[in-house]
Amino acid sequence: MIWHHVRKMEEPLSITRTARVTHLSWRRSMLPTIPMRNNMDSSAHCCNHEADDLILDYLETLDDYVRKKFELERQLKECWYHLARARVCLGSTSRVSELQFDFRDQPSSLMLEVSEGGDIFKLMFGMPMAKIERETLKRFGILVPKSLKTAQSAVAPAIQLICEIAALQTKINVLMSKFEPLK
Fold first, then answer.
1. Least CB-packed of 29, 51, 79, 109 within 10 Å?
2. DSSP three-state, residue 112
3. Rounded distance, CA 69 to CA 162, Å?
4. Are 90 and 145 in contact, with CB atoms under 8 Å apart?
């Protein structure tokens, strides 16, 4: 079954979460059940079901991974668009460039620890977000363009998506390591 999604020209191709979950549950329920033969032992049959479940989990996780990568790409494009608008607003002597990036080591405002299995997360905040936002735009003067603030606010969800993508990559690696002995 091929899925088509009606979309605007500027939006990436995507399937809504409810449609995807419904579609995946349809796939799971439509899997053929093969009756056990007399000469087939139950351990091999059980192993096949375990392998099938691992493959389905792998494909579902891979689907989430690709979908989040597309979303990350969309958010980063939006951020770069707003940065370009900020350059235009500031004029020909634009102060929004790589020269303004602070490449010194910065204390992390957020730490995320992921367990080996990828199931347990520990989130720690280092510095209040309001203080960080005030300090980062201070170098652009008192009257900061709205598009620069919008670009800054577009980066925060992108960072969250990067963390989710890293967690999905860990889960994919765990599923692959579980599948190796079943081959």
1. 29
2. strand
3. 8
4. yes
β-bridge partners, 122: 113
Determine, yes or no, domain membership for 131: yes
Please enumerate, as own/partner, the contacts of 166-173 that have beta carbons within 8 Å and a separation of 24 or more: 166/114, 167/114, 167/118, 167/121, 168/61, 168/64, 168/65, 168/68, 169/65, 170/114, 170/118, 171/61, 171/118, 172/58, 172/61, 172/62, 172/65
Q: Strand 121-125 vs strand 110-114: parallel, antiparallel, or unpaired? A: antiparallel
The pTM (predicted TM-score) of the whole model is: 0.57
Distances (CA, A) of 33 to 23, 52, 120, 155, 179: 19, 11, 34, 47, 21
Cα–Cα distance for residue pair 60/51, rounded to 1 Å:
14
Q: Which residues of 48-77 are buried (b: 16+ CB within 10 A; e: fewer)?
A: eeeeeeeeebbebbeebbebbeebbebbee
Enclosing domain of residue 83 = 45-91+107-182
Q: What's the domain count of the chain?
A: 1
9 within some domain: no
Q: pLDDT tens digits for 138-177?
A: 556 667 778 888 888 888 889 889 989 999 999 999 998 8
Assess whether pLDDT exceeds 50 at residue 75. Answer: yes
Q: What are phi and psi of 97, to 5 degrees?
A: -155, 180
